[in-house]
Design a protein that fits this description.
Blueprint (H helix, E strand, L loop, with lengths): L3 H20 L14 E4 L1 H10 L6 E5 L3 H5 L7 E2 L6 H4 L8 E5 L4 H12 L4 E5 L2 H7 L7
Parallel strand pairs: 1-5, 2-3, 2-4, 4-5
Length: about 140
C-alpha cells in the first residue's frame, strides 16, 4: 500500500498537471471585451438616444421593414432599407463610422440586420427591441 506521503505527492502532481492543461493562456491577441457589439436597447432608451442625437449628422435611424410597412408609419427621420431586398449589398452605401439605431416591426429583422452590419464593419449599432410595435405601444410619435 502506498504511503500517505506518496499519495499526497501524486495528488499534487495531478492537480498541477490539470491546472496546466486548463489554465494555459492561448496567447490570442483577440480581446472580446474590446470588439464592437450590437447594443440591444429598449424603446425608452432608443427615444433617449434619438433625442440626444437629434441634430447629429453622425446618427442614422434605420428602418429595415418593407417599403409598404414603412409607408404605414415610421419613426420620424428614419431611413428605409428593406431587410428582404439586398440589405447586405446595400450596406456599402452607408458610412460605417456613424451611429445607427436599427428597428423593424418586432425586433427580429433588426437583430439580424444589426448583426450583418457588425459583420460588415459597422461599429456603433443599436437594435431597438420590440420594434415599431413597442414604439407605438409606448405612445411615441410616427410620421408617414
Amino acid at each position: 500500500m502506498p504511503s500517505k506521503r506518496n499519495l499526497i505527492a501524486v495528488l499534487a502532481l495531478l492537480l498541477t498537471f490539470c491546472g496546466v492543461l486548463t489554465g494555459c493562456d492561448t496567447g490570442s491577441a483577440v480581446d472580446d471585451a474590446n470588439l464592437p457589439a450590437v447594443q440591444n436597447i429598449s424603446v425608452a432608451e432608443a427615444k433617449a438616444l434619438i433625442d440626444r442625437n437629434a441634430v447629429s449628422a453622425d446618427f442614422i435611424i434605420l428602418d429595415v421593414r418593407t417599403p409598404s410597412e414603412y409607408a404605414q408609419g415610421h419613426i420620424p427621420g428614419a431611413v428605409n432599407l428593406d431587410y428582404y431586398a439586398s440589405f447586405e449589398a446595400s450596406l456599402s452605401a452607408f458610412d460605417k463610422t456613424k451611429t445607427y439605431l436599427v428597428y423593424c416591426r418586432t425586433g427580429n429583422r433588426s437583430a439580424s440586420a444589426a448583426r450583418l452590419m457588425l459583420d460588415n464593419g459597422f461599429a456603433a449599432i443599436y437594435n431597438m427591441q420590440g420594434g415599431i410595435n413597442a414604439w407605438i405601444s409606448g405612445g411615441l410619435p410616427l410620421e408617414t
